[in-house]
Specification:
The complex is a heterotrimer of chains A (638), B (157) and C (195). With 638 residues, chain A is of the alpha/beta class. Chain A is built from 25 helices and 19 strands. Chain B has 157 residues and is α+β, with helices and mostly antiparallel strands. Helices cover 44% and strands 11% of the residues of chain B. Chain C is globular and about 55 Å long. Classes of the chains: A alpha/beta (638), B alpha+beta (157), C alpha+beta (195). At the B-C interface, α4 of B face β6 of C.
């Protein structure tokens, strides 16, 4: 393909692409993000290919694999355009019916979204409550784009901001626009993007580097993955505009190796942008040069920290540098370097296209624009949610997320990854932005939101994060390495029923030291999950320590399973499913659990038919004495 | 059974290294490439990498023991990765992991004696909405229940 | 070099531009404890004992003085309550890791750390990295390095190099604050180096 030599040639290309596309033509899209692949969207897509071939429709309709639309809970998702009919949980065997009905302009009712409360079916994708209450700027195009085709992005108005910046604006004007928009970093810190850009631009030293942080190490967060897989050009366009503003000619994209599809799609995107002259020498004839390289991580959470990430790109072990000079001044190879999160870069083209005022009209006083959250855990509609900053937790979890799953009671929402905290029910009306959640001891962070219910033990949950951090600390500085390890030690003994009265004080002392003395943010924030659970769920700690009881029934050393003799119907289901044969039972013989063999996996509890409900989980009290052998025989009325 | 492929391995390593002479900043990328090709990093290879890329051996050793992607022992034919990220955790991944360990008879980090499976955990695969998730080879299995574990593992040969 | 004046613990102290807080303070005879610092080596900033409080209330923060650049007009407190509390907890951690090491025991006593509240994890190596950095930066031998991460991090002699380089050198042994390096070397020598 010929390189585009001017903004005009790009516009001609766009017109050419759009004119060849018939908006009324039937098009089937199949979500092909990693999450949908995990539940089998590949076979569904293959079934479409096969069926279209079979029905001889290949030339009359379009079929497109798209990025993650975010409604992962309902995948694989198929949307039929132009009517935008959304089908959920589509299996290969549904495909023939979808095609033939769509050809007739009909709808396959059984695959539509059905409101769990009203029982009403919704056919149009954007009318589904999960989507209806969102404001999808960044994520919106994911469902319309085949990430491996730059033409899809261009057809939707992609690469419009780049020529605008290159030809109609000076670098200073681009910077001023970002500043006026009050864009803040989406990776967790919330640092004003323009200030970072300005430091990099003004810092002495050449070359200057711009870097995309797609390490996304926070467990429970996957918005960066979805963007990189689903709409990589939006990130590239933002990065190129930033490079122009800062006077950088070389960029890096750091992708964690756990995201193979993201790394693959961004590499394809770079190649295509180069082929069109949207990257490389003399971009669109503007005289501006910019190249981008992909660098893969090798499995280390800490490498998402800015100085650690730069060490990693230099080929060194990705651990942070103990320096007080910003990476904007001395970063990669000690040169001025600007590192921003994937989502931050993706915001840039929107700001340039629509203006700072428009962007700043969305959100709250201090937090502008939208933010993507990954709503996961014990919630009905798990997936990616993009809303204006300042939207309340309650709106996200209940209006969009559809509330807690399985008719359970809400307990807490954990935000901000391992550096964040657990927020209890009384604060659900708090607006979510950079500053409000911090006041609650948590943080917005990169946007992970994990909903927990009554079955989550908050001590165990705190232990989970501390364990995570103990594995992911680089081990360089004393407070983080030793402090987290001792915290884990203490939390472990509490969950094992060996906690001591002084343990809470010790945890608090360690927490203060971690915050004050650690070298980097990992250690400085490591205690947040412990401190917030102590703050909001102290009675659970006390129950573990003083009564040796786990109120949520999670901590294995503090619980036991017991079969209530008067409820057991001797159906053998639990005995057959027990993985360690710890259940002694027989036909017409009340079952009993051999406590010495039981591994407390809870399988029996799960499989016992609800109408019997014979398995009881007990904690903080002794297991009742075994039923006498002669009483075990069930006399059934015949 | 694993056979002594050391000669073939060294050949493959030399082949990969040929394109990277003196490129010390690509250490991690080279290690990833070799790990992908051989599924482990033999010691002889590390020494060759140190020489070819001009990186002190001390840095190579630190990198291979620092990052989770690298293995200094041979891996099984299939790597079973159980996600233990937060979302999977609250949806029961600890029990899934227990069940996989029981089924394979090995602990996380180990390889079955027949070198068929290696078991690993990962702190998040970004499929959080699909939790709990397990990956076998490069196939993702989402919304996993305990009783599916054996069936999935049995389907590999 | 341009002269700069800092206020350290209430006294006006003069230093030169480009120095760290630690260098200025020590130059004036003000004692700040360190375990990973060595004047011949690049500052490493990991033991965190040299933390000091900078700024004026209410806007103060703790920084590692071995890395933080001294600046004209900077107000520094080397023994504020906040600094002392933090050092105390750090010393508790170090005591659990290297119980009995004289330098740590003495510091603990100085700061009034009496109770051992933490479980002992005695490997005696506090990973200050003096040996690794001395070998790399001064000797350029790279015979010893770090491996692992997090709590698994440790110092390892690189067999391929240490076999030849270490026996005649041994210059890093006296740098080890807990004295564990030499015994570790002997152990490794007897286990690994003998062919």
């Amino acid at each position: 393909m010929p390189k585009l030599k001017s903004a005009l040639e790009l516009e001609e290309l766009r017109e050419g692409i759009v004119s060849k596309r018939d908006p009324s033509r039937l098009c089937f899209t199949v979500c092909s993000g990693t999450a949908c692949l995990a539940i089998g969207s590949q076979p569904t897509f293959a079934a479409f290919e096969k069926e279209l071939e079979k029905q001889g429709l290949k030339d009359r309709v379009d079929l497109k694999p798209t990025g993650c639309p975010g409604f992962c809970e309902q995948g694989p998702i198929v949307v039929v355009y132009p009517q935008e009919i959304c089908y959920l949980h589509v299996q290969p065997e549904d495909v023939a019916e979808i095609i033939s009905q769509s050809m007739k302009g009909q709808i396959v009712e059984r695959l539509l979204y059905v409101d769990p409360v009203t029982g009403k079916a919704t056919s149009r994708e954007s009318d589904i409550p999960f989507y209806l209450y969102q404001k999808r700027l960044i994520l919106g195009n994911n469902r319309l784009i085949d990430a491996t085709k730059i033409e899809d992005y261009i057809a939707l108005g992609g690469y419009k901001a780049l020529p605008k910046a290159l030809f109609d604006m000076t670098p200073e004007q681009v910077l001023a626009e970002i500043e006026k928009a009050n864009l803040r970093g989406r990776g967790g810190g919330g640092f004003p993007t323009a200030r970072k850009w300005k430091s990099t631009r003004d810092a002495p030293g050449e070359p200057k580097y711009v870097i995309v942080n797609c390490d996304e190490g926070d467990p429970g967060a996957f918005m960066n993955r979805a963007l990189m897989e689903g709409n990589p050009h939006s990130v590239l366009e933002g990065l190129t505009i930033g490079a122009y503003a800062m006077g950088s000619h070389e960029g890096f994209i750091y992708v964690r190796q756990e995201y193979p599809l993201a790394a693959e799609n961004i590499a394809i995107a770079i190649k295509q942008a180069e082929d069109y002259g949207l990257l490389g020498k003399n971009i669109l004839g503007s005289g501006f040069d910019f190249i981008v390289k992909v660098h893969k991580g090798a499995g280390a959470f800490i490498s998402g920290e800015s100085s650690a990430l730069m060490n990693a790109i230099e080929g060194k072990v990705g651990e942070p540098r103990p320096k007080y000079i910003h990476t904007a001044e001395k970063g990669l190879w000690d040169k001025p370097s600007c590192l921003n999160n994937v989502e931050t870069w993706a915001d840039v083209p929107f700001i340039i296209n629509n203006g700072a005022e428009w962007f700043a009209s969305i959100g709250t006083e201090g937090s502008k624009g939208t933010k993507i959250f990954s709503l996961v855990g014990k919630v009905n509609n798990t997936g990616l949610v993009e809303v204006p900053l300042g939207t309340s937790l309650r709106d996200i979890i209940y209006r969009i997320g559809g509330g807690v799953s399985g008719n359970k009671k809400f307990k807490a929402v954990q935000t901000g990854g391992p550096s964040g905290g657990c927020i209890p029910e009384q604060y659900l009306d708090s607006p979510v932005d950079f500053d409000e959640l911090t006041k609650l001891g948590a943080m917005m962070g990169s946007g992970g939101m994990i909903v927990t219910d009554e079955d989550t033990c908050m001590v165990d949950f705190a232990k989970y994060f501390v364990h995570f951090l103990s594995e992911e600390s680089c081990g360089k500085c004393v407070p983080c390495r030793e402090g987290i390890s001792h915290m884990l030690d203490i939390l472990t003994r509490i969950t094992e029923g060996k906690g001591q009265a002084t343990d809470v004080q010790l945890l608090e002392d360690l927490a203060r030291m971690l915050k004050e003395a650690s070298l980097c943010a990992l250690g400085q924030t490591a205690a947040n999950p412990v401190l917030t659970t102590l703050r909001y769920f102290r009675p659970e700690y006390d129950a573990h320590i003083n009564e040796k009881r786990c109120p949520a029934g999670v901590c294995k050393d503090l619980i036991a399973f017991y079969i209530e003799p008067d409820k057991c119907q001797a159906c053998l289901i639990c005995a057959r499913n027990c993985p360690v044969d710890a259940i002694n039972g027989g036909k017409n013989l009340i079952h009993v659990i051999d406590q010495s063999r039981c591994i407390k996996c809870g399988t029996c509890f799960d499989v016992c038919p609800p109408r019997f409900g014979a398995i009881k989980k007990i904690s903080g009290e002794p297991v009742p004495a075994l039923i006498l052998e002669q009483d075990r025989v069930i006399q059934r009325k015949s | 059974m694993v056979t002594d492929n050391s000669e073939a391995d060294v050949k493959k390593i030399n082949h990969i290294l040929a394109g990277y002479k003196g490129e010390s900043n690509l250490l991690i990328q080279v290690l990833l490439e070799i790990q992908k090709e051989l599924r482990w990093l033999p010691k002889e290879g590390l020494i060759r990498i140190s020489q070819e890329l001009n990186v002190p051996l001390r840095q190579v050793y630190h990198a291979v023991t620092f990052y989770k992607a690298f293995s200094l022992v041979p891996k099984g034919k299939y790597t079973v990765t159980v996600c233990v990220g937060t979302a999977c955790h609250v949806r029961g991944s600890p029990r899934i992991l227990d069940r996989v360990e029981q089924t394979l008879g090995i602990n996380s980090g180990d390889t079955t004696p027949d070198f068929k499976f290696s078991l690993e955990t990962v702190n998040c695969l970004g499929c959080c909405a699909m939790g709990p998730v397990m990956v076998v080879g490069d196939v993702y299995h989402g919304k996993l229940s305990l009783d599916q574990v054996r069936r999935i593992l049995d389907s590999y040969d | 070099m341009e002269k700069i004046t800092l206020n350290i613990d209430g006294k006006e102290i003069t230093g030169e531009d480009g120095m760290t807080i630690l260098e200025v303070a020590r130059g004036a005879g003000i004692d700040i404890p360190t375990l990973c610092y060595h004047e011949k080596l690049e500052p490493y900033g990991v033991c965190r004992l040299c933390l000091v409080e900078i700024g004026t209330p209410p806007r103060t923060r703790l920084v590692t003085s071995c890395v933080y650049p001294a600046a004209d007009g900077l107000v520094v407190k080397t023994r504020s309550e906040r600094v002392i509390q933090t050092r105390k907890m750090l010393l508790e951690l170090l005591l659990a890791r290297a119980p009995g090491a004289k330098i740590i025991k003495d510091l603990a006593e100085e700061y009034g750390v009496t109770k051992a509240r933490l479980r002992k994890t005695a490997t005696f190596c506090i990973l200050c990295g003096l040996c690794v950095r001395y070998c790399a930066e001064i000797k350029k031998a790279d015979a010893i390095g770090f491996i692992g991460r997090g709590i698994e991090r440790e110092v390892m002699f690189i067999p391929e190099i240490a076999t030849e380089s270490c026996p005649p050198c041994r210059e890093c042994f006296p740098l080890c604050p807990t004295g564990v390096l030499e015994s570790n070397f002997r152990l490794v020598q007897s286990l690994l180096f003998k062919k």
